[in-house]
Design goal:
The complex is a heterodimer. By secondary structure, chain A is an alpha/beta fold. Chain A is built from 16 helices and 14 strands. Chain A has a seven-stranded mixed sheet with strand order 7-6-8-9-10-13-14, sandwiched between helices. In chain A, helix 3 packs across helix 13. Chain B is mainly alpha-helical.
Amino acid sequence: MKAKLRLSPKTLFCAMCLSCLVAAVPSLSTFAIAQDTFNIGALNPITGAGSFYGSGMQQTILFAADQVNAAGGAGGRTLKVFAEDTQTQPEAAVLAAKKLIEVNKVQAILGTWSSSVTLAVMPLTEAANIILMHNSGAPEITTENKKGLVWRFAPSQNLYGRVFAEVCRKNGFKRPATMALNNASALGQIQVFSKTWKAMGGNIVESVVYEPKMPTYRSELEKVLAAKPDVIILGSYLPDTTILLREWYQTGINTKWIIPQWAATPKLIEALGENVTEGIITIFRQENTSPAFVTYSDLYKKATGKSGSDNLYAAMCYDMVNVLALAMEAAGPGASVLQINSKIRTVADGPGTEVYSFAEGKKALKKGPINYNGAGSWIDLDKFGDDAGSIFTWSVIQKGRYEKKGNIILK
Amino acid sequence: MNGFPFFINLLINGIVEGLIIALAALSLTLVFAVARFANAATGDYMTLGAYAALGMQMLTGASIVVNIIVAGIVTSILSIIFFRWVFQRLAGQSSVTALVASIGIAFFIRSVLTFFVGHDQYAFKIPVTRAINLYGVLIYQADIYLTAVTLLALGGVFSVLYLTPIGRRMRAVADNFELARISGIRSSEALIIMWAIVGAVSGIGGVILGIKSVIMPEMGWDLLLPAFAAMILGGVGNPVGAVFGGLCIGIAQELSSLVVGYSYKIAVAFLALLLILLWRPHGLLGYKEAIR
């Protein structure tokens, strides 16, 4: 056995040459493909806490990419989408992102939802120097965005926190209490709310941070209710909100709730019934009244059979694909990921001709600079890569339906 | 805070939470006493029970009592199947082998479940009613029923263990496997009954957990750690100890929130476990060969 393993220098050299050649072949072939396709990963919460939005988001990325390809592609390349599920869990999301980056060689990942997922995927995309466009809220994502490759299309909790304070004021509440799930997104939302509310001269009667995955939150609730709040501001996800509201209703103590709509989804109403959810105030982002939203909405209806306004995260995904494709077009054929990245703000947030679709933008780019006005928002990317261009809306759940009450525009 | 009623409320919450942990811990400790390994699939037996009851409710609209019974039966059958299929074949191997196999079964059950039902949350269709308010002490009607069911289940298990011939044989096997065999006790029969009981207890515990919270594929697995702690706290292999340990952990968690807040109450429960084990290494009610 040992004799067989002894290699002469000549054989060794030949073997090295051969292995180099073998290693080079696949990378050569991917290089050849990369000339005319641009691989993107659609990494969405198909299952788990975000499942209400996830599959619509993914289908939107697919039809938006088809639309770009039908318009002749972007920067001489066609988009190829690889779809994966995050399960709304960081562990599963990291595995999926690794597969997208290493096996599918994607150059951008689009549509991660929930901050813990985005924060977990970020180190991978940063290390691979690829673009990440996400729908998460935690303020930390901004500070961790070291290379400027991360773009936030959903409003940051910095904005949501302020909107919660504004809605609280508009409804004339005087004694708010807060409850936050112990994660980056919910804590961020509640911290910003508290800061804003206190700056308005208000007072917070009680605040509790609670742990995920507990079978009951009675003690946490009773502590908050003991302070006799007239409203409870909740930073949460769907499962814990379901348990909390059920237990609150059982106490029979009267108070109002302001809950983000990603936690107070129709699934909550389905689980608890109309009595428990009656009068809950929910806060969400308003769709953008632009032709882009109309186009998105039609396509969304065709793809999923549901109304486009039901899933604004999908509208944001539509904008992600268009902004990315327009940046590719602006950067020109064969541009590197970094060159494309540097064009994102130019096409989405610059002075220039107002455009509402990729095809329009592609044409207008030949004449001069453009400004893409999207389906989810008019897109106002600040220097940190966060979209600040949103109208928010607040609704009240009445008889199991969301009744829109008003809009909030932050100045 | 409202002083005394608030304290009593915390205590009640602790007891209710403790009873759920107790069912899981009882299931764990029975396996440990008779088959001598830590059954990591207990949590997923519970999850399966919850989904079985949910499926029954969705298909037939049967009352929750029927659903609980069906869940107990389904999980029992599954528990016996896994015993015959896996654990019986591993008899005589080290307990680590059985432990690893049970982790495998846990993942298997969860994967099959999520393949069919997905990761979405479900809830039992049970009308939500207002609690009874006694001078600030809140008594939830749902909790009364849940406590009753839990106590019934515990009572049933203890009756089988201590009042029936098969229970005596099980305890004999737990006490000394070889001696029981020499005395003519058919250990395989005792083991099948034990696994059936373990399945039923887990299944019922799962439904109760599902009624209290929401039904998700990880619900049982997430309860496994406190259940292990309760089993160890009460003395490994001791059924009374498991229930006692569950209650201790539940109450310690809730009452400690007065001092350390809600984020650290889980840590405090485990600190209590650590201190008690330093004081009594075999657990509170533990002694060698516990079931006797």
